[in-house]
Each structure stands twice: as structure tokens, then as C-alpha cells.
Specification:
557 residues; alpha/beta; six-stranded mixed beta sheet; four-stranded mixed beta sheet; 12 strands; 56% helix
């Protein structure tokens, strides 16, 4: 008997020692991983379902001045987010996704974000300690923490008496073994099986909520550890968290049974899982937690926002490290919109050609396909958004008005609503016109305005739509092939262009921005490079020259 007790004690001590050793190994590996990931593109996988879950928090807090879905998709901001998302927690990545949508129009909050970014950039030890704590929360798959957190009160409530009765039945069955061994063993086995089956039945009903509650417990654990860091530069946030944390102290005892700091799959976790399945201790605790969450929804949202901000700023600091070249934007409240930027570039290009521009009005950009027009206006749009969200411009300098940012670029036919490309396009442009106001200027981007209709009506209509932007509180950058627009609107739009050369049957683009309208006409020459017949090229050239001379197209015999 004594030997058995001794072996049991040795086994428990061994498990404890192994658990602590495994914990230390995981910590060293985590720190090594965090150091390696710093200033690098995060290795995350994103599905459409994952992106939808990330958007839930933003959809709950969106405003009219935010970057709308059309603009977001036009300039592929999902890719920017993925490149930047070096967050350690689900809260952080949901907050970062929303932050990149929500333009700011005052410098106070932007400068505070920059203070945090620069602190984490220059204080590796403190940053790693914060990242280690936030990594304890981890991330979840295809579930929005914010969405489910604010839907906990919609969950059908369950009385714990059912679980207490199942536990009592198990103890009675075990006690029966000492009276009638065979019957007691059968009853015990049956009771265990019944408890496990009933456990998974209820668990399946609350799985998504349970995942979030388990996460919130880890979130609160992380808040407690974060508050204990005593980092002076984060004092205003720890003070805020300590105030709201008090609301959740009542149920902290026993909370670990619902979810460990972060499941690791070691022997301790396996043992605890069996305890949960047989005795339902996590379901019992889960039910008792619901009321506390319901009564403290505002406090929980404050924790979400605070942790989300800190984690997001660490990710932005890593993004700046990755980009290397950036500046702090100079933003102004201005009655007339303007933008002045030097050596601005697109973050997704490996070897970007940098451009500079200084304008106080609308701009038309001409040039052939693939010359750089669309990339340039996307570059301006992305940097305007980054400047007013994460206080970062990927340029040598950026001086501009505060803007709302809208675009109409990567449009498609809407077959579900039976809408042609032209209908989709004019609706997209109308939404920009409807959003213009006198207080905040709009920086808008249009790629090939009204490309979905015939030349005559396209030029007539697009010139008047573009004129409307110029007469309102807007600064429009429009890319076009229609040289006619550069003449019609020359009193309202400055002209810039991109160009290319055809040398030895090769197309050479320098992707540089030049002042003035495009003068080269290489479209027909490009046909020859691709391999079209000489007959097609010669006849096309002759037809074009005839039109320039006589002003009308000849009928093909």
C-alpha cells in the first residue's frame, strides 16, 4: 500500500516537473519565433471565411467616413492587412483590420499610436514580454471574438442542476462497487459513458460560444499579466485595464478549468480534458460565467479595444521594420485639398519605382496599358489611408489634407442583380458624388471612367462627372486613355502621364511619372510585337491616319 502511494506521488511529481520543463521549452521557442518574425511577412493562412470573421468587429463600429468596401477591394487592402498582421492575438488582428478602415481626422490619436509604435520598435525586451503574454491568448479559426462576445446574452441558458445530478449518479455508482462489485462496475462504466455523451451533446450546442468564453478567460489572464509588467510607457493603458478588470474578479477562481492559458496538448491538458468530460466542470463554470459577462459588456469591450490597440501597434512597428523606408505624414485641416509627396511607393512591389507629385487640384493621368497609371493611383490611395490610420507613409515625405478616401476602379458586372458593367460603374461614381461634403475633402480615384459605354457618350458624360469632382470639395485622380479629356478639362485638371518605348520589338516601361499629357501612340505597334500579321497592322495604321486627317472612319469594303 505504501509502495503504491509512493509511486503515485513520484508520478505526480514527475508530471509536474515535466510540465514545467515543457513550459520553459515552449517559452524559449516562442521567443525565438517572435524574434524571427519581427520585420518579416507573417506566415498566416487566410480563407474567405477567415476574412469575414475578421470583418465582424469593423462592421459593428463602421462609420460613413471609413474606407468603404469598394475602395478597400479596389486597392487590395486585404493584402496590405495580411502583410501587416504580425499580431499575436485574435483581438489584435480584428482590431487591426478595423483600424485600417477607420480614417482619423485629428492628429492627437494618430500621434499616440505613433508613440506606441516607436516605443515597441526601440524596446525589444519590453515588446517581447508583451508579445509573449498576448501569444497566450492565441488566435481562433473562423470565429469573431468580438461578434460572439457581444452575443453571449443570446445563448439559451441552462440550469446546472442537470450536471450536478449526473455527477451524483457517478459517485453513487462508484460507491455501489463496494456493495455489489459487478453491478457497481457496470453502473460506473455506464455513468461515465452517459456523462461523456451528454457532455458532447451540450458542448456541440455551445461550441462557438464556448470557444469565445474560453478565449475571454485567456484574455483576462493576459490582462492580469500585462498589468503586472509595470512598463511606464504603457501606464495609461494598464491603469485603464485595472479599473475594468475588477468587474471580472468574482469568477476568476476555477476559470482555468474552462480553458488553460493556451492548450498545448501535454499530459496535463489530456488529464484535465478527461476531468471535464466526466464531471462537466467546464460546462458548470461556463454557465455561471454567463451572467457576469452579460452585466459587464461595456467593460469587456474596453478590454477588447485596449488590448487590440497595443497588439496592433506592435504589428505596425514590425510592418515599418519590413518596409524600411517610410516617413511620418504631415496632415492638415485645410479648406482646399492638397497633396505633396516625394518618392512615394507601393508596399506590395518588390522593386517599386518611386514617384513624386505636388498638386492642389484634380489630376488626369494618361498613358498606355501596363505603363503604371493604375499602380500610381493605388499607391496614392494606400498611402493616404495608412497616413490617417497608422500614421505611416511609404515615402520620403508626405504632406496633405485630411481626406475621406473613395475609389471606383476594379468594377465588375453584377450578374446577380442583372446589372451591366456600365450600370455598376455609374452607381459607383454616384456614391462618391453623394459622399462629398464641405467639411472634409474627398480624395477620390477613378480608373478609366465610364469604360463600359461607347466613345462619344463616354467622353461627353465622363468629362462632366469629372468636372463635378473638380467643382466640389474633392481632389480626383483619374486614369484614362481618352486624350480628349485632357483638353476638355485642362482648366480644371492638371495633366500627368506614363510612357513606354518600343525598342527592337520589345516594350520598355520606366514606370516614371511625367508632367503633361501622353503623346506617344504605340497601341498598333504593340500588335506587331505580340505577333499579329503585317496586314492587320498596316491596315490599322492606315485607318487611324485617315481618321486623323478627315475626322471620320472609312467604311471597310
Amino acid at each position: 500500500m505504501i509502495g503504491a502511494v509512493f509511486l503515485a506521488i513520484v508520478a505526480v511529481v514527475g508530471l509536474i516537473i515535466k510540465s514545467e520543463h515543457d513550459k520553459e521549452v515552449r517559452k524559449r521557442r516562442l521567443i525565438a519565433k517572435l524574434k524571427k518574425q519581427w520585420g518579416d511577412v507573417p506566415s498566416e493562412e487566410y480563407t474567405a471565411e477567415k476574412l469575414r470573421s475578421l470583418a465582424a468587429y469593423y462592421n459593428a463600429v463602421k462609420e460613413d467616413t471609413d474606407v468603404d468596401d469598394i475602395t478597400w477591394n479596389d486597392i487590395d487592402m486585404d493584402q496590405i492587412f495580411m502583410t501587416m498582421n504580425n499580431t499575436s492575438s485574435a483581438v489584435g488582428e480584428e482590431y487591426l483590420y478595423a483600424m485600417l478602415h477607420k480614417l482619423k481626422f485629428e492628429e492627437e490619436e494618430l500621434k499616440e499610436r505613433n508613440r506606441l509604435i516607436e516605443f515597441f520598435s526601440s524596446h525589444e525586451e519590453e515588446r517581447l514580454r508583451v508579445q509573449e503574454i498576448f501569444s497566450g491568448m492565441g488566435k481562433v479559426k473562423n470565429v469573431s471574438i468580438y461578434e460572439y462576445m457581444n452575443r453571449l446574452n443570446n445563448l439559451k441558458k441552462e440550469n446546472n442542476m442537470t450536471h450536478y445530478f449526473l455527477i451524483l449518479a457517478l459517485f453513487v455508482s462508484v460507491a455501489l462497487i463496494f456493495v455489489a462489485p459487478v453491478l457497481g462496475i457496470v453502473c460506473t462504466v455506464g455513468s461515465v459513458i452517459n456523462n461523456i455523451v451528454r457532455y458532447y451533446q451540450r458542448k456541440s450546442e455551445v461550441e462557438s460560444y464556448f470557444t469565445v468564453v474560453s478565449y475571454l478567460i485567456r484574455l483576462l489572464d493576459s490582462v492580469k499579466e500585462f498589468n503586472a509588467l509595470k512598463i511606464e510607457e504603457l501606464k495609461i493603458y494598464t491603469k485603464q485595464l485595472k479599473e475594468v478588470e475588477k468587474a471580472f474578479q468574482s469568477f476568476r477562481k476555477g476559470a482555468r478549468i474552462v480553458a488553460s492559458k493556451k492548450p498545448t496538448g501535454d499530459m496535463t491538458d489530456v488529464f484535465v480534458d478527461y476531468i471535464r468530460m466526466i464531471f462537466h466542470v467546464d460546462l458548470i463554470k461556463f454557465n455561471s460565467m454567463m451572467k457576469t459577462f452579460e452585466n459587464n459588456e461595456e467593460a469587456l469591450n474596453t478590454i477588447f479595444d485596449t488590448i487590440g490597440l497595443i497588439d496592433s501597434m506592435i504589428a505596425v512597428a514590425s510592418f515599418r521594420e519590413l518596409m524600411g523606408e517610410y516617413c511620418l505624414p504631415v496632415l492638415e485641416e485645410s479648406s482646399k485639398p492638397f497633396i505633396e509627396t516625394e518618392e512615394i511607393y507601393h508596399p506590395m512591389l518588390t522593386e517599386p519605382v518611386k514617384s513624386s507629385i505636388s498638386e492642389k487640384g484634380c489630376v488626369l493621368i494618361t498613358g498606355s496599358n501596363a505603363s503604371g497609371k493604375s499602380t500610381f493611383i493605388k499607391t496614392l490611395a494606400i498611402n493616404a489611408i495608412l497616413s490617417q490610420t497608422i500614421y505611416t507613409s511609404l515615402s520620403k515625405s508626405y504632406h496633405a489634407s485630411y481626406f475621406k478616401v473613395k475609389s471606383s476602379m476594379a468594377l465588375q458586372d453584377n450578374i446577380y442583380n442583372n446589372e451591366s458593367y456600365y450600370i455598376v460603374e455609374i452607381k459607383s461614381l454616384k456614391r462618391i458624388l453623394d459622399s462629398l461634403d464641405e467639411k472634409i475633402p474627398t480624395l477620390c480615384f477613378v480608373d478609366e471612367v465610364l469604360r463600359g459605354t461607347n466613345t462619344l457618350e463616354r467622353i461627353a458624360a465622363s468629362s462632366r462627372i469629372l468636372l463635378s469632382f473638380a467643382k466640389e470639395n474633392a481632389m480626383c485622380f483619374a486614369a484614362t486613355h481618352d486624350i480628349e479629356l485632357t483638353h476638355i478639362l485642362e482648366n480644371y485638371y492638371a495633366n500627368y502621364h506614363f510612357q513606354e518605348q518600343v525598342v527592337d520589338n520589345e516594350i520598355l516601361f520606366d514606370y516614371k511619372l511625367y508632367q503633361g499629357r501622353a503623346v506617344s501612340k504605340n497601341a498598333i505597334k504593340l500588335l506587331g510585337i505580340i505577333g499579329y500579321s503585317e496586314e492587320i497592322i498596316e491596315e490599322a495604321t492606315e485607318a487611324a491616319n485617315l481618321f486623323l486627317e478627315e475626322g471620320e472612319w472609312s467604311v471597310i469594303a
